[in-house]
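Write out this protein's structure.
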Amino acid sequence: MAPKIGMKEFCCSPRSSSTDHSTSSPSTSQFSSPSRFSFLSSRPSFSDSVMNRTLEMAEPMIMKWNPNTTTFAKVTSLFYENRREAKDFIKCVYNLQKAMQFHSTENSKSDKLVRAQSLMQIAVKRLQKEFYQILSMNRAHLDPESITTVSYRTSTRSSMSEFEDEDDNDDRIVVVTGESISEVLEDVSNVAMNDLRLIAECMISSGYAKECVKIYKVIRKSIIDEAIYRLGVEKLSSSQVHKMDWEVSDVKIKDWLHAVDVAVKILFNGERILCDHVFASNDSIRETCFTEISKDAAMILFSFPENVAKNSKKSLEKVFRLLDMYNSIAEHWPEIEAIFYSDDEFVIRSQISTSLVKLGESIRTALTEFETVLQKDSSKTPVAGGGIHNLTIDVMNYITLLADFSNVLSEILAEAPPPPIKSSLPESYFGVADSDESPVPAISLRFAWLILILLCKLDSKAKHYKDVSLAYLFLANNLQYVIVKVRSSNLKYLLGENWISKHEERVKQFASNYQRLGWNHVIESLQHDPSASMAPQQVKEIFKRFNSSFEQAHRKHSVCVVADNKLRDDLKESIARKIVPVYREFYNKYRDAIVRERHSAHVIRFSPEDVGHQLSDLFFGPMELENYLFFEFSPSR
C-alpha cells in the first residue's frame, strides 16, 4: 500500500544544503549580504513539495492502468484483477485531488497543476471504464430481485474510511434473506455494490459526478424499462383502450396486476436500494438519479388504471377488474410511499393518486348503473314451483363478489352520497341498526339498500302467481337464498346479525302463510265432532274428502322446489306435524269399521305411514330445475 502523505512527513523531511556552515564562522558581511540567502528563494514551497510527492506516487499507478497505453490496461478490469490495487488506485485519485486543491490556492497557473490535471483525466477515464464494466458485467447480480435480498447498514463513515480501516472481506451489506439466491451470488452482488459506491464517491468528490451519473442512468434505466416491457405493460393511448374488446382488456389488466406487484416489491424497490447505496454520499444526486431512471417506467405502469377507468367500454362485470386494480394500488401504497418519497418523485405519486381517484369514480358509476338496472327490472313470468328467481341468483352473486372488496369499497363509497332509504323507509324495514352515536358505515347502507331493492322486486313478482300459497313459497325460497348468501360471505359482517335475524323471521312468516294457504284445506277435510258417533257413510265421506284434498295438494305441490335443505326439511316436518297425527287418530278409530266392507281400498287409500312418505318426497321438484337453481352467476374475473 502506498504510504500516506501528511503534514508531518513533509515538514520533518531532512534537506541537504550546498553550503558547509561548519567550516567557517559567520561574519557580519555574510549575514548582511543577500546572496548568502539566495538558496531560500529557490527552495520549493510546501505546496510544491506536496504536489511533487503526490505526483511521484500517483503517476506510476495511474499510467499503469491508462487504457490508451497498454493492451493489458485496455482489456483488463482493475477491480476484477486486483481489488487491493484498485483501492490503492482510488486513494491515489483522492490524494491527487487534495494536492491539486491545496496547490491551486498558491499557484493556480503551475505546470504541476497541468500535469496533475492530465493525470486526473486519465484516472477518471479509467474509473469510468471500471464503473461501466461493473454495471454491465454484473447485470445478473445487480438485477432488482438480487438487490432486494440485501440491505446495507447505515453508517456515517464514507466507503473510503471503511476500506482504510477494514479488511477486504468486510462488506458493508448484511444479507437479510438468502433462500432464493445462493450465498456465492449474494457475495458477488455485495462486492459489486460496494465497488460501484467506491468509484461513485471518488468521481463525485473529484468533480466528475456528471460523467458517473450518465453511465449509471443509461445502464440502469435500460434494465427498468426492459423489465416493465417484459412484464407485459406498454404505453397505450386512450383511443387504443377504448377500441379494445373486453377479452383483450381483461388480459392486459391481469398482466398489469401481476406487473404492479413485481414492480413495487422488486423492481423499483431494488433500484431504490441500489441507487441509495451507490450514491449515499450525495442526497441530491441520489434522488435525481433514481427519479430519472424510474420515472418513465413508473408513469407507464401507474397511468394504465386511469386510462382504463376513463376510456374502456363500460359493463357491470368490469367493475371487479377496476376493484382489483384499486385494491392492488391500495395494498402497495405504503411501499409506494417508501420508494417514491422525495419531491422529485411527486409527479409519480400524483399519477398514482389520480389513478385511484378515476378508478373510484368509475366504480361508483358502475354501482349506480347496477342499481338502475335492478330497479328497471320488470319481468313478470312466475318461476315454476315457486323456486328461486334468476334475478335473485344474479344480484346476490354480484353483491357477494362486491363484498369481497369491502375494505376498498369502504373508502370509495365514503365519498358517495348515502342511499335515500333513511329518509323514505322505517328502520325496521331497513334492517340495520343506526344511530347518531353509532352510525352505520356507508358500505353497509349501500349493500342493505341494494338487497332491499331486490326484495321489493321479488314482492312485486310474487303478485303474478295465481295461487297465493305459491307466492308465499316463492318469497320464502328467495329470501332464504338471500340470507344464505349473506351468511356465507363478507355481507355477514357488513349487515350484521340484527339484519339476518329480522329477515329469518320473515322467512318463517312466508313459510307459515304457505302452509296455511296450501295445506289447511287438507286438515280441514278431517274435521268432525269426535264426541258424536258417526254412521259408516259419514266416515266414508270424510275418508274420500281427505283423499281428494290430499291428492290435490300433493299433486300441486309436488312440482314445488325448495333448494335450501333446512327450509325444505322444516316445511315438510311442519306440514307433517299438522296432518299426520290428525289423520292417524281418525284412521285408527274408524279403519276397522270400513275394511270389513267391499271396496274398502277405494275408501281408505292412504295409511298414516303412506301420508308421511308422500310428504317426505315434496319440494325436490324436477331434477333439471333443481340443478339449475344451484347455478352460480360469476362475472368473469
